[in-house]
Amino acid sequence: MILLVPEVIEPSLLQGLPEGVEVAFLPKEAPLSEQALRAEFAVAPYGSGSRRFFAELPHLKHLKVVQTLTAGVDWILPHLPPGIVLCDAAGVHDIPVSEWIVAAVLGAIKRFPEFRDAQREQRWAYRWVDDLEGSVVLFLGYGSIARATEKRLSPFEVEFIRVARTPREGVHAWADLPALLPKADVIINLLPHTPATNKLIGAAHFARMKPGALFVNAGRGKTVDQEALVEAVRAKQVRLVTDVTDPEPLPEGHPLWSLPEVFLTPHMAGSTPKLFERGFRLVHAQVARYVRGEPLQNVVRDGY
Fold it and tell me: Mind giving me the DSSP string for 7-55?
């Protein structure tokens, strides 16, 4: 079996693959080798390398499985030919993204962005700040990243409300959201982007939030109506910390660059040096399952 990986992958990450697995590389520019063209299993590059991968997909006649190193798959789904199994990297980003969320919540509650601005202006901007203890934290979407975030926030003695499109024990149905939003001090959006979640969070939801509630977006920018979000911030209905926007990159002159009560990072919450180490542990496990004919993990169905 031939495994196709981007040529930028460190060789050490490919050591210990199951017997009989050959590795071929997806180059940045050079033509694919004959070996690469016979690949059955591919690790999809994200970012600048994705265009090359998409361009080569029609030539990969033997390809059966594509494994991403991203939790979201909205960027790749439209490009995959029918019949190819797509697996996401659920679980790989739990630690860095949950750490980003905790930092985002604490930084916003303690007003660190404001104090940083004041420091640069050499201004002694004394003010009172809030406590996280006793707050109500509401999750929009409750998967592995939400569970990892909950674990890290629990020592702060907060109360959790969980809402997802698939209700289950301890997790509310989406229909319950309007009644739950007014109770939350912090709302954490972790929804994936699918046709069903496109602009799902809109003006009606922001209007139901507590005035001044903190909205944290570590999911996808397209799950939120950006115009409604901007208006909610302008009206001081919500404060915002976000790692994702719509569009990305955020264009010059967009209101979110300069509005008060907004702090944004450039979709980097999961970007840490350990990404490929964690990601290729998953790749190794998935390739071993494929070789043994066992069911794969993280198979994408209905867009996520």
Answer: TTS-GGGGTTPPTT-EEEEE-SSSPPPHHHHT-SEEEPP-GGGHHHHHH
